Amino acid sequence: MAGHFEATPGGGAAVALDEVEIAILRSLAVQLLELIGPGDEPAEGEDPLAALFAEGPSEPPSDPALARLFPEAYGDEDDELRSASAEFRRFTENDLRTRKRDDALVVVRTLDALTPAGDGAAVLTLSADESRNWLGSLNDLRLTIGTRLEVSDEDEGEEGSLYRLPDSDPRKPMVMAYLWLGALQETLVETLMP
Predict the structure, then answer these.
(1) Which of 70, 138, 82, 89 has the alpha carbon at shortest distance from 110?
(2) How far apart (Å, rounded) are the C-alpha atoms in residues 32 and 37?
(3) d(Cα 36, Cα 138) in Å, to the nearest integer?
(4) Sign of CA dihedral 107, 109, 112, 117
(5) Cα–Cα distance for residue pair 5/130, rounded to 1 Å
(6) Could you count the other beta carbons within 10 Å of the beta carbon of residue 30?
(7) CA 35, chain centre distance (Å)
(8) For 76-117, how does the pLDDT look when each residue is reduced to its tens digit (9 = 90+)?
(9) Whole-number pLDDT of residue 26
């Protein structure tokens, strides 16, 4: 189980993590929460149903990582597609941000609930719902880090340049995190397959 998720009864998953892995995952999830931004909670006395129908932004984010997390729906080849993308974004981005925020919060909360043993390792056991939250958050973390690293399809394969970075390259720690998150994500997907 060390280093990869395994299926548990009831559709959940479990993975053994050491203190350093827990700290890295928690730190990355908190940074993702900061990137996504706070939620728009209804003000005191405000109708909670009104918040459901609040319109979101119509322009794509300027930050490349956020643009990757909240991509254009229809591209921007012409004015009609840009207009359709703006409308789609206006009515969906707030919900998408909420879902991504909720996923990252589940990661933080489940990690905070762990109690490492004497050797510093702990087994994280997730329910089926928590597993789906983790899967979403692992994906968002990889998209964000990959965007920051400017990862391309050619970089990722076993022969790709990510695997050949010298230790002196300042990107090396983030590349290692990116690859590790990919391995976690892959094993979690495998546990969720019927």
Answers:
(1) 138
(2) 8
(3) 14
(4) negative
(5) 13
(6) 15
(7) 11
(8) 677 888 888 888 888 888 899 999 999 999 999 999 999 877
(9) 97
Dihedral angle sign, alpha carbons of residues 5, 183, 120, 124:
negative
Percent of the chain with pLDDT over 70: 86
Single out the residue of 99, 97, 128, 125 nearest to residue 111, CA to CA: 125
pTM of the model as a whole: 0.85
The confidence score (pLDDT) of residue 1 equals 44
As a whole number, the mean pLDDT across the chain is 86
Is the Cβ–Cβ distance between 143 and 69 less than 8 Å? Answer: yes
AA letter at 162: L
| Interatomic CA distance for residues 59 and 51, integer angstroms | 20
Helix (H) or strand (E) holding 124: strand 122-126
Name 71's Cβ contacts closer than 8 Å, sequence gap at least 6. Answer: 60
Distances 97 to 35, 168, 170 between C-alpha atoms, Å: 10, 36, 30
Q: What is the pLDDT of residue 63?
A: 93
Q: d(Cα 87, Cα 55) in Å, to the nearest integer? A: 10
- The rounded distance, in Å, linking the Cα atoms of 160 and 169 is 15
Pick the residue with more confidence: 142 or 162? 142
